[in-house]
């Protein structure tokens, strides 16, 4: 009852039961070693969205390192009878030895874009389904929402502050995904530690309420954190708080934060008062239930920075990217590749190995061009699939803090290439069409 | 670049930056040791919901054990300058020594219900805000949705199968929360290991596609997993698949799964065919984008079990419970308790220490009765606040597999006491009103 934190850092049980029973049956049938290609894609974007942003790729590579069935995992599977002894033996030796290619993290995507492909034996690939989808579905949902928010914010920085509104480990991934998609910082300390992200924050209403007066609270904060701190104005009365703040910190006060009320009107009033007191460099941060629409509505208000919580960590109405992991090709008994796909009409998918290129008119993207299995040799455009794991060797450049920095650059460049319509927040069609070419 | 999995199992950095800067300022001002009560509550239920279900409490207790600022956490905070040296010294010695009371996990709740209260020094309580809210907000969102689904399913079991549609660690918490709220099982193996949950699953479309024919795939599955396995019928043509399935497994076939199309019509057709072939005990499981409404719509269809994915792990439209953690009382300089609350009109809250009781008419709940600070001594009803941590001592009975079992019982009993209107899926008011009594 007492040891709930598994002592093993293995990620191998972030897996659905059926992956292991399929493995068992395929091992017994002699089909487990057939070379296979699994592909991750989304059938559609969330309702009305113009584009999505791939995130989670680096985390998959980090977790793939620890995808090991150690004694602890094997003991659990044995004692619960999930699979038979030969399957346990196979799992105990598991090391992914295949090749994973995919859209670089931070890249934009559209319906049908082949975001990730896993080429390996069926056995090695089938057990990664849940781990891969969990990371991509959550992180991509957050990055896709965050990109719309940072786009609406323009040059004003957005801070991710939603840790409290999602699972504690998801919060770390959300901070990472938001920063990839243009956010400047996060409140989440673990994300700061793991990925070298800038963390921010000064005080909450509880700090003001702890003290006998707002004046005592502000004085305590300025004494300890310095005049360049950000004071929270709306615990009692904003006007009074503003007067007190400037009396205590003077015009060198770093910033003020507004967390309730009509933020646009208040920002104008607060800016006027700050300027009248000579506090022209004191910044205004707003933080109350913001999303991309609220940020856009504040474009004309004198706001310097946005703090975004709930809506970014829950994907602003689309809390999962609804990506799927499908077997699209496998070798037959005689060794030739066979494209495969499910026939049910309501979930049509495109079988087969794919090549993906983004086509341009000048510097503006015009089409997501997908060749099944390949585009013509002279096809013009930017290749979208990059090597992430080659024959089991993980490319570390996509992981950790470096991976985040690369993904930030990729995001900025890819969003910059999209046609203007991509930046409309209203519901509409994907910014560019996805076109299939059969080679 | 290579060591991304923190070697420390500490949960201490699942924390927002501002909690530590508040701590620093309060330590410097001499106010950090003031006794304080923080309270978790929701201002409202998700739109149209009749009740919510508390979950995450046990996980908070599990994580509280590991909430330690070890050398690794201190080094990060020092190197990034988050807080000053005296604050780091204080954190290095951190052990929660206060008292936490709350609604038992699995309990139902309403707007304003004081779900958790943390009584300690301000310093000890303020740093737990994000950890507590993350666990409660996510798990409660899932349990609240799951309870509506298991309610709509009645005696038919629901299986949680949504791991792939949420963050990989959130998936474990989601499985746990769903089972607390009436689900029978989960696909998630890590949840099985950590909490002793029943895990289930047999095969996906990829298993059929791996093989040269559907017949080969079914034969491989039945050979390895036995005749009581569940065969997936809709990779190609359901009718043909059903014939093949019965030819291979005979009428002893355990079950079939339908994952697309009009599930109600198909279930009727498949049931008829199964019965005609003598497979009267072969169960039908359906699994395509189900939520509480789809489950309710299938009540008249011959379905034996539901597999629910995306909608349960994303809270069926409410991916966070939007619970908040607020300072409601603290001692003043002279040692007397002072009720505190933020004055901003748009976020009215009820300050003060609270007592919570559920009132009944016979066996049916009629009111959530909240005394500030206490109800009259002769007030009738069931006390809702239980001791979870007393003077730093965690009650292990609320953690691990035992905690889940207790929470399942609590959920079933509490839901059973609600008036009938609680089980309507249509939008409406909370099933019982929340009434405040000032003592």
TrEMBL record, chains A, B:
Record PTM: Transiently phosphorylated on a His residue during the reaction cycle. Phosphorylation strongly increases the affinity for substrates and increases the rate of nicotinate D-ribonucleotide production. Dephosphorylation regenerates the low-affinity form of the enzyme, leading to product release.
Top-level taxon in the UniProt lineage: Bacteria
Keyword ATP-binding: no
Pfam family, one: NAPRTase_N
GO molecular function ontology, one term from the record: glycosyltransferase activity
Spans traversing the lipid bilayer: none
Record EC number: 6.3.4.21
Keyword field: Glycosyltransferase, Ligase, Phosphoprotein, Pyridine nucleotide biosynthesis, Transferase
Stretches assigned to the Nicotinate phosphoribosyltransferase N-terminal domain: 13-137
Metabolic or biological pathway: Cofactor biosynthesis; NAD(+) biosynthesis; nicotinate D-ribonucleotide from nicotinate: step 1/1
Glycosyltransferase recorded as keyword: yes
Protein name as annotated: Nicotinate phosphoribosyltransferase
Organism: Brevibacterium pityocampae
């Amino acid at each position: 009852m007492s040891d709930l934190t598994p002592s093993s850092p293995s990620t191998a049980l972030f897996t659905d039961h059926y992956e292991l029973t399929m493995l068992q049956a395929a091992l017994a049938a002699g089909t487990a070693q057939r070379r296979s290609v699994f592909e991750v894609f989304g059938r559609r974007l969330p309702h009305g969205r113009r584009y999505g942003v791939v995130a989670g790729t680096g985390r998959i590579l980090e977790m793939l390192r620890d995808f090991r069935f150690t004694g602890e995992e094997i003991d659990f599977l044995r004692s619960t009878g999930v699979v038979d002894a030969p399957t346990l033996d196979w799992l105990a030796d598991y090391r992914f030895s295949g090749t994973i290619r995919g859209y670089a993290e931070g890249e934009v995507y559209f319906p049908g874009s082949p975001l990730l492909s896993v080429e390996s034996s069926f056995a090695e690939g089938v057990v990664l389904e849940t781990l891969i989808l969990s990371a991509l579905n959550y992180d991509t949902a957050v990055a896709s929402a965050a990109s719309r928010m940072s786009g609406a914010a323009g040059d004003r920085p957005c801070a991710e502050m939603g840790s409290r509104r999602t699972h504690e480990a998801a919060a770390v991934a959300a901070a990472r995904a938001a920063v990839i998609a243009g956010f400047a910082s996060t409140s989440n300390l673990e994300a700061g530690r793991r990925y070298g992200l800038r963390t921010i924050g000064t005080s909450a209403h509880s700090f003001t309420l702890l003290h006998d007066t707002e004046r005592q609270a502000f004085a305590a904060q300025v004494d300890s954190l310095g005049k360049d701190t950000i004071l929270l104005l709306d615990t009692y009365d904003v006007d009074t708080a503003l007067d007190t703040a400037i009396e205590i910190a003077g015009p060198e006060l770093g910033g003020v934060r507004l967390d309730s009320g009509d933020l646009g009107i208040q920002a104008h009033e607060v800016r006027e008062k700050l300027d009248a007191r000579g506090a022209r460099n004191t910044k205004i941060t707003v933080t109350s239930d913001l999303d991309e629409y609220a940020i856009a509505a504040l474009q004309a208000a004198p706001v310097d920075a946005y703090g975004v919580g709930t809506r970014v960590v829950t994907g602003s109405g689309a809390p999962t990217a609804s990506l799927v992991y499908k077997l699209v090709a496998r070798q037959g008994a005689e060794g030739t590749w066979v494209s495969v796909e499910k026939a049910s009409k309501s979930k049509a998918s495109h079988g087969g190995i794919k090549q993906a290129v983004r086509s341009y008119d000048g510097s503006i993207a015009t089409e997501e061009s997908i060749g099944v299995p390949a585009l013509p040799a002279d096809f013009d455009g930017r290749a979208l699939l990059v090597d992430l794991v080659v024959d089991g060797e993980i490319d570390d450049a996509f992981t950790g803090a470096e991976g985040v920095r690369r993904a930030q650059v990729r995001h900025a460049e890819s969003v910059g290439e999209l046609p203007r319509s991509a930046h409309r927040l209203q519901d509409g069609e994907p910014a560019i069409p996805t076109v299939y070419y059969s080679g």
